[in-house]
Amino acid sequence: MMLNDKDESSFNSPLGVRGSNIFYGALPIHFELAKKLRDNQTDAENISLGEFTKIRH
What we know:
Strand content: under 5%
Mean pLDDT: 76
Number of helices: 2
Order of helices and strands: HH
Radius of gyration: 17 Å
Helix content: 40-55%
Low-confidence stretches: 1-9
Number of strands: 0
């Protein structure tokens, strides 16, 4: 797909630069894979998440 500078509606950045939908263009399989990763975190990920949670509070 070619990006036309005059038609900004054809491009949505995940950072919200030219659009606000961070899920634009994502396929259902992307969400399925992300869920599998979230549901099967490694010990290191769980420890890191615990540490990050402590920092946020």
